[in-house]
Amino acid sequence: MMEAKPKRRIVTENGDTGEDLVLATLIGNGDDVGPLVRHAFEMGRPEPLVHQLKNVAKKKEAEIEDLCKTHYEEFIVAVDELRGVLVDAEELKSDLASDNFRLQEVGSALLVKLEELLESYAIKKNVTEAIKMSKICVQALELCVKCNSFISEGQFYHALKTMDLIEKSYLKLIPLKVLKLVIERRIPVIKSHIEKKVCSQFNEWLVHIRSSSKNIGQTAIGLTASARQREEEMLERQRRAEEQNTGGLGELAYTLDVEDTEQDSVLKFDLTPLYRAYHIHTILGVPERFRDYYYENRLLQLKSDLQISYAQPFVESYQTFLAQIAGYFIVEDRVIRTAGDFLLADQVETMWETAISKIVAILENQFARMDSPTHLLLVKDYVTLLGTTLRQYGYEVGPVLDALDKSRDKYHELLLEECRRQIVTAITEDSYQQMVIKKEADYENNVLSFNLQTSDIMPAFTYIAPFSSMVPDVCRIIRSYIKGSVDYLSYGVNTNFFSVLRKYLDKILIDVLNEVILETINNNSIGVSQAMQIAANISFLEKASDYFLRHAAQLCGIPSRSVERPQASLAAKVVLKTSRDEAYLALLNVVNTKLDEFMKLTENVNWITEEMPQGPHEYINEVVIYLETVMSTAQQILPMDALYKVGVGAVEHISNSIVSTFLSDSIKRFNANAVSAINHDLRVIENFADERYHSSGLNEIYKEGSFRSYLVEARQLINLLSSSQPENFMNPVIRERNYNTLDYKKVATICDKFKDSPDGIFGSLANRNTKLTAKKKSMDMLKKRLKEFN
């Protein structure tokens, strides 16, 4: 190679072109001449390149020849060596052929073994694959068996989870199309079977929960009733503490709500079938269908529960009816609180509106049919318990309470009529005798309990009360009426119902009690003792009206001090006072009628007697005895003001009777002896009036109005007729001082009848006393002047 380079330079130097040199260099270096060839053909001049390549080829051949010449000997030696190699190669070939034969003999057996081995490997692979496929099938079948077992045991959730596992993890891997197809076909069937089974169990639960709703409602309402009773007892203790002015009022007030019963822990009912059914339907992908199914069936149950049987009286079935409704909605509340989004609040609201409208309609209809306040109150109490119970669960019970409020007047009408019958019985069966109380317990029950005592000191027993047995009997009736009214008004729409109760209390006292008393008073058959006892009874009933108002306030939780003000008293108190005055008038009418029977002056008095009377007439003793009896009885029974009215009325009537008798047309004339006799009678009455006025203690109260002062007209008339100078009547000063109650016309009429000498044949011839003559002249003068005056 070192010797070839100079030869290249020789070629170059021998006239080679530059292009040939470049091409030769590229070929010598082993570079790619492709670009040059491409370029020559692209230029359309391949001939120069072919020429250059030929030149290069020639130059290479010349170089080879030179090289061969240079290494000829070496080449010969190499050829010889090559021939030796060929010999060796033949030998080697022979050896190789021999070895190949032997190898073929050995290799054939090995190839058989290899084929067997490869076949074994293929079988193993197939067996492994078959085992794997079999395991998948076995596992799938085991899951199917397990699923069937779960279904037979009722464990549907586990069965569905197993089927879900089969579908997601095994169904695609099952190599057997038949098995895969069978499983694919059975899965929907099994799901449908599970759904039917779950629905069947759920339907059983629907029946069970409906039958249990009554017990659930009764238990819940019972808990509410117990809580209400505890609260009422607490309020009662608080009221007693207030009445006794004891401390700890704040503590009592704060302990009302300390005990709070958790109804959920007491009301135990199983919602598991519902949860399970909903969960399974959710897994099945049809939760909406189950929600609709539940809502529709429960709504049908509700509508069925809201139907009542008219074959059975409502008062016997209302508790079952209302407890069933309460239990129904307690269940729905538990469902909506514990079942997630299973039940919508709007659905429950729709069910409640359906129920509330039906309940209100039933209550209004049944209340209109009832004729017993007790029955109406029983239903009302249970309805309020229902309302309180369901309000705790968030239900709006206002319409139910409004229905109760609408029946308020109906209840009070029934209650009023019932109390009217009792009051009429108590009054008509009254003995009108003072009540005899022998025991302290009877005194507390009949007197102290109604604040009827006349003294704060406990009396000695046996105690004669100033009223008859009618008073405590009526008080008990009114008290029961107040209790019945409070029971109905409590727990209703209005929490502050005292004003309503007050109106109803006035109604029974005015429209019932007062009317019955007035009917009794206006009965012409009553006697003096009856009239007097009725007047006394009214006085105590008037006093008891303050107790009724305080009792009503206490039951309503109103402080007693708020109703103890005078302006807070009942309107009935004024009405009873008026009736008491009516009773006094009736008493006076009876007394006056009896007095008229005793007196009968036109029959008992000889108006033209010739004898000078030595004393009063006999009838006046009977009058005094009668008045003594009346006043003594009145002093025991009636209050002092009534006693005073009775005394004043009696003596005033006697005075009026005397004057009226003188004016009577049946008395044509009278003489001085008759006037003297009447004067004796009048003095007896005056003495009696003074004695009773002072002995009864009325003189300490009515200092300027004694009984005698109401006899003044009769006294002034008798004084005028007995006067030696009757003409002084016309003297204004004397008349104002001595005869101010006498009327001119009455005096004129009476004086015309006055004849100071008796009729007789020899009357005019009788010797007359000078004094009598002067008196006669004076009387004649008075008659003359009265005529002139008139």
Automatic annotation (TrEMBL):
Ribonucleoprotein among keywords: no
Residue ranges of domain Exocyst complex component EXOC6/Sec15 N-terminal in the record: 52-221
Species the sequence originates in: Camelina sativa
Stretches assigned to the Exocyst complex subunit EXOC6/Sec15 C-terminal domain: 401-753
Free-text function comment from the UniProt entry: Component of the exocyst complex involved in the docking of exocytic vesicles with fusion sites on the plasma membrane.
Keywords from the UniProt entry: Coiled coil, Exocytosis, Transport
Family as reported in the entry's similarity comment: Belongs to the SEC15 family.
Protein name: Exocyst complex component
PANTHER family given in the database record: EXOCYST COMPLEX COMPONENT 6, SEC15
Gene of this entry: LOC104781562
Domain of life: Eukaryota
One Pfam family per UniProt: Sec15_C
